[in-house]
Amino acid sequence: MTALGCLAVLAALSGGLGAQERYPVDWGKLEPEIFERFSALLKIDSSNPPGNETRVTEVVEAALQHEGIAVETFALESSRANLVARLKGNGSKRPILIMGHTDVVGVQRDHWSVDPFGAVRKDGLIYSRGANDDKDHVVAGLMVMLLLKRMHVKLDRDVIFLAEAGEEGTTQVGIDYLVGHHWPEIEAEYALAEGGSVIEADGHVHHVLINVTEKVPRGARLIARGPSGHGSRPSPQNPVVHVAAAASKAGTWQTPLRLNDSTRVYFERLAAISPPREAARYRAILDPARSADVDRYFLEHEPGHYTMLRTSVVPTMLQAGFRANVIPSEAEAYLDIRALPDEDLTKFFAELRRLINDPAVEVVPVQNGGRPAAPPSRTDNAMFHALEKVSRVMFHAPVLPGMLAGATDCAQLRAKGVECYGFGPIAADQDGPLGGAHSDDESISVRALEKLVEFLWNAVIEVAAS
Ligand SMILES: [Zn+2]
Asked: How many Å lie between the centroid of ligand 1 and the Cα of residue 277?
């Protein structure tokens, strides 16, 4: 017997064979099935509004039930059902929740080069609304459930699969409804959801970004009112002038730079795997004495990093007037504000008012979807270590804990004490997490899709298999 063979026998005798080896999967063979199931989901137009997510959950439900997996659906509105399926473990550990949302954002059809609900496969890519956000996670969750069942995997913890509705701006029918009315059905120690990505540069994986926290979406309306009048007569009370000046001040405000535990570890680890010039920058941002220059550099060249370091304020809409020669009686600007998880918003808005410094402009905070703030998920538990191990084995790459600038349903789960981690498909460096999401010609590569399913499978096996 070879030395390697001896080791294998010894490992088997000592029960040392990992779950990974006991449950091997032939991914090449599964490719047609993954693609077929994915296409079926993509071809359903679940644009939100109105959503019609029930049409998606019906397809998922049929697939699960066909293989003997029981399914429950919960719906605040019958056309917007959420689906929950559970595979039971021996109860020695608390459940893990794997999830994906079934709704997608709408499309501007004439901006697409292909049918946005055609699941067109071309040059190794699959084009469709939802290909990246988030039917990839839905099909990954579905496949993992089917595989666990087919391979009779013995589990230490329940594996719960949630396909949730309404993530794109109507969480009252989705995660809020589930958390509020069906919490026992989805309660878990860990959750895996959208929000991260596998960052590829120059043909190899550079690092794996796992979202452990996210910014809190808020907003503000800047409103000015005054007497309307003729466009030929300048007026100091012109609301257009007041709102434009206020929006300009807010939009050029360099809000204070502040690191938290997640972003600190992120930049430390990023420095460790970056070329010298970049590494020096990522180290300098951690040093208050040297961070200002780098911060300015980020604003110009690395906006994703700039926003990670602060509560961001971005004017996105201006509304005023209806005729070229009329001073309108009202003008309004909208600020998209993405707060750091621990931001004191009362203080922040007071600061914003001080900055605008114009009693004619009213600053009205907007709740904006109501994502709750919560502490970051931990980076020292079994789940995070499992994600690190899987990243090492699959991609030979380290994990960087990230803070997502966007918002996901993880926010609601973290607020309930669930350790929630955002993972995602392979993406090019410049795209970043959720890079291709919401864009025209949204797509995912066949390889990225397969690796996403494989990543979720490995992570679940790692923390849940007996
Ligand atoms: Zn999404």
From this structure: 34
